[in-house]
Amino acid sequence: MIVHTLSGGTFVNLDAYLVRIGHTGSREPTLAVLRQIILAHSCSIPFENVDVLLGRGVSLADADVERKLVEDRRGGYCFEQNSLLLRALTSLGFSVTPLSARVRLKAARDVVPQRTHLFLSVTIGGVPWLADTGVGGLSPTGPFRLDLLDHEQSTPHESRRIVREDGEPLPRHFHQAKVGDAWADVYEFTLEEMPVIDREVGNWWVSTHPSSRFRQNLVVAMAAPDGTRMSVLNREFTHRRGAEVLERFEFSGERHLVNVLEERFGIRLPSDTTFAIP
User: What is the pTM of this model?
Assistant: First the structure.
């Protein structure tokens, strides 16, 4: 077992993480390895907010995140997913910077969402690549360049691009995904770093504030190696390829929901679990 110590006294069991995501290849800090890690992570560790709805709270302590997502084989949302990815990539020798963003899914450009999203910039050979395993059903399953504007870039799932608008005091950058024939805003950012204290504040808001989406909805999502995605939104399961729906059904009850979470996403919960979904 290899345990890496990072700055600030944090730890990551790199061997256990790589077993969790099923990566058995090279550990060199190359673009090819970054692509493999992000795809494997996206197809192995589900995005989910189960603990928020069960009133358990969400800890961002390094040991707690690692225990939940790696040892207990659960999932999490952006602060958990990308903090784990940040430490794993750093352990592999990548140069990684945590950045902040405002999620804009289905939000008009004149709406100002909370700055409660964490994503990563990974620099390889002087080139910055966007890495993010924490945007639910639109988490990019491969890295794409942060320095290419208005340029369609492929990933194992949807194409991505970065567009920019001039603004004050800083320009606004928009991460977009191509769903079907249309481009959709995923989130906006200004390339500002997101330190630990800002992550703690953002995590507190999304996990406790009554108007947080994660307090109001059950959200589960995971990508599949065949280019499809599976998701749960409240009482409905969807399996899709891009904009094409391959399978969709509503849960017949709590037991059905709990079974689907285990069978499709690997999330094991007691059979009598009840979700407080408004």
Answer: 0.93
